[in-house]
Amino acid sequence: MDTNTTPKERKFRLMPEERASWEENGYFIRYDVFRKEENDFLAQIADDIATGKQPFRAKNIHQNALVRDGKTETSGTYAMHCIHHINNYSSEFLERTRDPRLTDPVVDLIGPNILGLNNLYIWKPPQIGLGFPWHQDRWYFNRQYKTDKTVGTWSAIDASDVDNGCLYVIPGSHKEGVLDHEELEGSQQNEFKSARGAKDEDGVAVEVPPGSVIFFDNRLLHKSTDNHSGRFRRCSVAHYISADSERLPYKNINHIKPVMWVRGDTYSEKMEPVYRDALPIPEEQEN
Ligand SMILES: O=C(O)CCC(=O)C(=O)O
């Protein structure tokens, strides 16, 4: 499927000005990609997972660190930080990951055979939502896969601006290689390491309305700030990798990251295991 599509057949293919921005800046933005109803539907699924309304648990679900550490009290989705690998549990998120509005341009960037890496949903709740330090996603991917071909997509569920903790990027940083990453002193969420040497003064805020998608090179330095507003700043992040990549040896089969089939026909056994279906873990099997 899709392996032999021509650019003309791909309705949402990459435009020349987008390629120019991709090459020069390491990212481009598309507006009005997803309709409000589509994003509301997805957000409801995430909320239902977080609040136990789905008949399964997500394994990689994290509370906001201030709530987790007893520094503030709140509940429900107001207490959430994010879920990793949500398309491994939710067929709705998996469908979104495979949506041609996300994958058509990705074909033009890394080829027709595409797998899905980490897929992340972030709530960043009002007043307490925490930011992410400067980092390059490729630093993480380089520890798990041998490849040059990865693309990140960041889809805004809500308006995202400097008040509620939008993304910041360092344009052109994708050309400078991958920096060392280290534990950040005082980082409350302790989820991402920090790229050594990245400077705040080089960053630009990427404010986007709901329904927009930021496509970014996984070597692009990016961060986000805390949410100081009274609004949520929710987003869905999907990362893609070319199917001709290779997994690096892993020590513990239980820690192997799920990779999902997205589009195209071929992937080698070097990327196995590759999953086609979302496989929610029933609550009774969790312990
Ligand atoms: O959405 C955010 O606040 C940051 C997300 C991010 O940096 C990432 O997923 O790599």
The number of strands is 19
How much strand content do the residues show? Answer: 25-35%
Please count the helical segments. Answer: 6
Shape: globular
Largest sheet: 9 strands, mixed
Whole-number mean pLDDT: 92
Q: List the domain count as a whole number.
A: 1
- Outline the low-pLDDT stretches: none
Q: What is the CATH C level class, in words?
A: Mainly Beta
* Relative helix content: 10-25%
Distance N terminus to C terminus? 38 Å
CATH superfamily membership: q2cbj1_9rhob like domain
Determine Rg (CA atoms, Å): 18 Å
Keywords:
287 residues; Jelly Rolls; nine-stranded mixed beta sheet; four-stranded antiparallel beta sheet; 25% strand; binds 2-oxoglutaric acid
Explain the overall architecture.
The protein has 287 residues and is an alpha+beta fold. It has one domain: Jelly Rolls (Sandwich), CATH 2.60.120.620. Helix content is 18%, strand content 25%. The protein has six helices and 19 strands. The chain has helices at residues 16-25, 36-50, 65-68, 91-97, 100-110, 137-141; strands spanning 27-30, 56-57, 61-63, 80-84, 114-122, 132-135, 145-146, 150-156, 167-169, 181-182, 194-195, 204-206, 213-217, 222-224, 235-242, 246-247, 259-263, 274-275, 281-282. The strands form five sheets. Strands 1, 3, 4, 5, 8, 13, 15, 17 and 18 form a nine-stranded mixed β-sheet that branches. A four-stranded antiparallel β-sheet has the order 6-14-9-12, with no helix packed on it. The longest helix has 15 residues, at 36-50. It is globular and about 55 Å long. It starts with 15 loop residues before the first helix and ends in a 5-residue tail after the last strand. 2-oxoglutaric acid (AKG) binds next to β5, β14 and β15.
